[in-house]
Amino acid sequence: MKQFFHKTELPYAGDHAVYFGGGYVADTSDNASRTIGHLKNHGWIDRATRAVFTDVTLYSPDSNLFSIVTLLVEFTAIGAGFPRWEVHTVRLYRFHGGWEVWMALLYISALAVFTLVFAIKEGRKAYNSGALYIMDFWNWVELIIILQALAGVATFFYSEAILEDVASKMENNTAASFGENSGLSGRFVNYRRAAVWDQVYTYVIATLLCSVTLKMTHLLRFNHRASLLIHTLKRSVGPLSGFSAMFFLYFFAFAILLHLTFGLRMLSYSSFARTFEAMVTIIAGDINYEEISTTSGNLGTFILFLFVFVFNICLIGFFVAIIDESYHSAKDDGQLEKTDYDLKGFFKYQLQKLKPKKKARDDDSDNTSISGPGHDEFKVNVMKRLSTVFEDLDER
Length: 396
Known about the structure:
Strand content: 5-15%
Keywords: Glycoprotein, Membrane, Transmembrane, Transmembrane helix
Family: Belongs to the polycystin family.
Number of helices: 10
Mean pLDDT: 77
Order of helices and strands: EEHEEEHHHHHHHHH
Number of domains: 3
Subcellular location: Membrane
Largest sheet: 3 strands, antiparallel
Main location: membrane
Distance between the termini: 123 Å
Low-confidence stretches: 178-184, 359-375
Helix content: 55-70%
């Protein structure tokens, strides 16, 4: 019972390899126990097998949640098996009824229109500012928000298209099964691709909200304490650059040491990526002391103590000392402005920008304009000359 099937699903990254579409598929939708027994008796898993996937899709109508379960067993060249599991629990059907669908389309369309208008405004600003536009950090934040908003809109429609495609396959299979044996059984349809794109949409929206929150913190420059914090961070850029180089040097050195010491015995240190993750959790305070001491004995305990001492005590202390020195230096600076702008003046300036410009009403002036920064200076010079003339007339 072997059948070749070229899968159109997304590639799956296991612990030992990345698996793309293609392979042999056995559908257990009708009679799982009989199908598995038949595969076992006929040697469906042999020496050439490198991975066996078991895909299960569960749906709860009460909570409207899908659980896409992937069970994987990887076989290495020496014949050892390494199990792995992954569960995606998502709400794929976000809307119920035509009203919610229309409201969702209205919201996403409003976001798209606002993003396009905002992009045009930023484009005009960049054109007028020239090379100075890229020198401002907050202009980069604006560009990132525009790109993330456009990516969110595109990801939303693409994920909905993927879900519609998967749901249509499910309906077709169910209809075919009803026509054959009048039972609720049919060919298995994997919802993993729809669940992955739904998670991608969630990640894009999360990064968008993070950038918008960062932009909102820009308004804190009107507060004296927030302005002091910003100046503190500016003063600490230089010392923190040297500290960061030293920090990452020690971090990579300990990563190599922990990977070589615990990599063969502990799964959490079996690769450099997992070692980095475990080191970050230890710095955050989550220390799995029992597993390390049981696996590696006194050597593992000594290495763990050395790592905690270097990072949690020494390097973190250096970081706090740099921030504290920069804070007192910025606080004692007499030239430090209390705020970057006055809040009332800022809003007044923004409202004045929205007012329409006055048109010239005199026919004699034609295309000549007397408004501008030089007009006030011209009036001052005229008044000075008139006062000089009047003084000469009085003396005569």
